[in-house]
Amino acid sequence: MARPRPLPIDPLAEAKRQWLAHGWTDAADGMTAVVSVMRAQQLLLARVDAALKPFRLSFARYEMLRLLAFSRSGSLPLSSVVARLQVHATTVTSTAERLVRDGMIVREPHPHDGRAAMLSLTGVGRDLVERATAALNSQVFSAPGMSDQDTTDLVGIVARLRRDAGDFTEPRPQPDPL
User: Fold this and answer.
1) d(CA 101, CA 84)
2) Are 48 and 148 in contact (CB under 8 A)?
3) Distance of CA 41 to the CA centre of its chain
4) Most C-beta atoms within 10 A of its C-beta, which of 34, 43, 76, 130?
5) Listed residue (65, 73, 63) closest to 110, CA to CA
6) Which residues pair with 119 in a beta bridge?
7) What pLDDT sits at residue 178?
8) pLDDT single digits (tens) 145-176
9) Does residue 119 have a pLDDT over 80?
10) What are the angstrom distances between the C-alpha of 65 and each of 11, 92, 104, 139?
């Protein structure tokens, strides 16, 4: 797919100008921030999708495989996957079903809770997620499109937004300051 030519003006700057011209001055900066983050998400997701395409993985499928690969045993309760990925249980179940169908994970009974399920990574799934991670690291994560300082600043700003929205409390022990 050919890259579109850059626009002669920043559409978000024009949107902000319009917000101000319509008297929505109290909302103009917030609108610009929200839409800027949404556009940045589109740009980054397009890069992630391109890196994962050869592996026939969506980011949701990749995230689940990576989470399981990070666990000590390659296995987690479904409820833990839901909590850690911060998505609805229905979404996790649907993603898991596709990964089971493709032989990347297996769904097993929980050893101590008859009502719960465990998701376990298969050897094929582990191999795939390692190869996909190498591609993401080289094609996206090692050069996200901003300076190291901008990357650090952005992570800190977004982490504070997420914390204030209730995504997490201050972790213990604390990581480097945001």
Assistant:
1) 23
2) no
3) 9
4) 76
5) 73
6) 76, 107
7) 41
8) 999 999 999 999 998 999 899 988 876 655 55
9) yes
10) 37, 11, 8, 19
Indicate the residue type of 122.
T
> Is a pLDDT exceeding 70 seen at residue 131?
yes
Nearest to 48 by CA among 56, 58, 38: 58
Residue % of the chain over a pLDDT of 90: 78
Residue 77's identity, in one-letter code, is P
- Rounded mean pLDDT of 127-140? 98
In one letter, which amino acid is 2? Answer: A
**C-beta of residue 144 within 8 angstroms of C-beta of residue 43:** no
